[in-house]
UniProtKB/TrEMBL annotation:
The keyword Nucleotide-binding applies. This is Succinate--CoA ligase [ADP-forming] subunit beta. Pathway: One-carbon metabolism; formaldehyde assimilation via serine pathway; Carbohydrate metabolism; tricarboxylic acid cycle; succinate from succinyl-CoA (ligase route): step 1/1. PANTHER family: SUCCINATE--COA LIGASE [GDP-FORMING] SUBUNIT BETA, MITOCHONDRIAL, SUCCINYL-COA SYNTHETASE BETA CHAIN. The keyword rRNA processing does not apply. It comes from Croceicoccus marinus. Signal peptide: none annotated. ATP binds at K46, G53, R54, G55, V112, E117. Heterotetramer of two alpha and two beta subunits. GO terms for biological process: succinyl-CoA metabolic process; tricarboxylic acid cycle. Mg(2+) binds at N209, D223. SUPFAM superfamilies: Glutathione synthetase ATP-binding domain-like, Succinyl-CoA synthetase domains.
Length: 399
């Protein structure tokens, strides 16, 4: 789960982390009110979308010479003009894809006199099973490029969960950033605060780019991205509330309401499968037969007719889907339940694309009978290979 920059900054501030003062705004009037609360004379108006690269981004509706999604404003009138420019328009950045993202919120914040820009991030490192702190003096720019061309400028520090954050971790961060004196001390303190926040909030990733040294000698978090372990959100209702579903794929949001694991992909064959392993195998075998899956969808073990119907509708809501392959092993979930769901959903949505169904397991005969007697043009398949061949052939035939 991702949140917006201003929300992440508010969370970090609770752990003592230094951030510039700022206020979120949903309208031009709110943006102006926000600016009036700030001391000025320099303000920054920032588009709040769940994607980075906003500064260098471009608005679809504005000309190629228009400014991007992070703008320095020298007066309250400028803040107003920038807010009018950005709100409701579509920002395209290296991270949004060509479709871009509509800007519905702004963050109006203090302009900072920047002396240096640094990079600092934290993530759960699967290789070591530890939280890793990644720091670089090369902040503000594309960190992937820094990692590629000058990997020596990136330092990774991992923290043993048993002993937790130790003073030497803080010193290593400050050293990697080449900081002296008071700034060195600030960096040590910051690293500890970030680790505490990361752990306490069940973060998955925390990226600060840039972390800045101000001209008056303070370390401030100027931009941050924070994401959380979705499975831990029941422990943090206050964080869960920060979710902004308008930033997510609508089909994925609907799937999560039914507790379905759904991820949209680029192909044309919709898949409905139970179990993540079987779903992966199904996607592989579709590719082996020369086509591409339109989605990953795991209906899980204990699905009801209602859940299967929802899954079916979600797959069909994707206009790219030209055929559906259902591949279910009825263990906990019985084949006749699946069959009922498929028939009900196919009738409800007036299915127009070919549908191949492979059922195996508990009550398989009953399930096949339901499908055969449904009066729907469902193509039965005997095994995984047969199913994949049939759906690819059916889609070709229909095209
Ligand atoms: P993004 O990474 O999405 O482009 P950032 O928040 O990192 O957005 O902003 C891009 C650049 O804009 C920063 O690297 C920094 O140079 C400048 N910037 C951002 N916020 C401020 C601020 N409050 N004061 C001064 N400059 C800022
Ligand atoms: Mg940034």
């Amino acid at each position: 789960m991702n949140i917006h920059e201003y929300q992440a900054k508010e969370l970090l501030a609770k752990y003592g982390v230094g951030v510039p003062t700022g206020y979120a705004a949903l309208t031009v009037e709110e943006a102006v009110e926000a600016a009036k609360k700030l001391p000025g004379p320099l303000y920054v108006v920032k588009a709040q979308i769940h994607a980075g690269g906003r500064g260098k981004g471009k608005f679809k509706e504005l000309g190629p010479d228009a400014k991007g999604g992070v703008r320095l404003a020298k007066s309250i009138d400028d803040v107003k003009a920038d807010a009018e420019d950005m709100l409701g328009n579509t920002l395209v950045t290296v991270q949004t894809g060509d479709a871009g993202k509509q800007v519905n919120r702004l963050y109006v914040t203090d302009g900072v006199d920047i002396a240096e820009e640094y990079y600092l991030s934290m993530l759960v490192d699967r290789a070591t099973g530890r939280i890793a702190l990644i720091v670089s003096t090369e902040g503000g720019m594309d960190i992937e490029e820094v990692a590629h061309s000058t990997p020596e400028k990136i330092t990774t520090i991992t923290i043993d969960p048993a002993s937790g954050f130790q003073p030497h971790h803080g010193r290593a961060v400050a050293f990697a950033l080449k900081l002296q004196g008071d700034l060195n001390k600030q960096a040590q303190k910051l690293a500890k605060q970030l680790y505490e926040a990361f752990l306490a909030l069940d973060c998955e990733m925390l990226e600060i780019n840039p972390l800045v040294e101000t001209k008056d000698g303070n370390l401030l978090v100027l931009d941050t991205k924070m994401s959380f372990d979705g499975n831990a959100m029941f422990r943090h209702p206050d964080v869960a509330e920060l979710r902004d579903v308008t930033e997510e794929d609508p089909a994925e949001v609907e799937a999560s309401e039914y507790d379905l694991a759904y991820i949209k992909l680029d192909g044309n064959i919709g898949c409905m499968v139970n179990g993540a392993g079987l779903a992966m195998a199904t996607m592989d075998i579709i590719k082996l037969n020369g086509a591409f899956p339109a989605n990953f969808l795991d209906v899980g073990g204990g699905a009801t007719t209602e859940k299967v119907t929802a899954a079916f509708k979600i797959i069909l809501s994707d206009p790219a889907v030209e055929g559906i392959l259902v591949n279910i092993f009825g263990g906990i979930m019985k084949c006749d339940i699946i069959a009922d769901g498929i028939v009900a959903a196919a009738k409800e949505v007036n299915l127009q694309v070919p549908l191949v169904v492979r059922l195996e397991g508990t009550n398989v005969e009953k399930g096949k009978e339901i499908l055969a007697n449904s009066g729907l043009p469902i193509v039965p398949a005997d095994d995984l290979g047969d199913a994949a061949q049939k759906i690819v052939a059916e889609v070709k035939k229909a095209a």
